[in-house]
Amino acid sequence: MREENPLKRISLKNPVHLLAVGLGSGLLHPAPGTWGSALGTLLGVILLMLLGTKTFLILTALCFVLGCYLCQKTADDMGVHDHGSIVWDEFVGVFIVLAAVPSLSWQWIFTAFVLFRLFDILKPFPIRYFDEKLESGFGIMVDDVIAAIYAVMVIFLLNIVW
Fold it and tell me: Where are the domains of the chain?
């Protein structure tokens, strides 16, 4: 018989689980998705500065593909689809938004973070649809990618206005 708490079914010593829970940020409460997005923002800014936009976008695409596996494997091991502690998808989502900001000023970084969280939490159409209908690692990842695309569209509009 499995233990009640799904978190007891994973180990941070397992690199798949460690990455899926955002290096442990997804284990913070309240709001693990926000903590995961915050750490993802910090890592994303550092990587973007070190790698440049083109290489960062390639890395982000690779993180998406890897994330489909990481999130599915961890969800399977937990016995829960898209448990709140799985935040690798937030990392990838916020990476996408950061790649679109006009500059790495604190104002744009903060805007990227807030817009991504807003769309990830509200889940406007079709985000909620995909979140509810796709029960796979791809499904865990894709709703955050769509939330990121919405945030990127708002950033483009804000950049025109500002």
Answer: 26-161
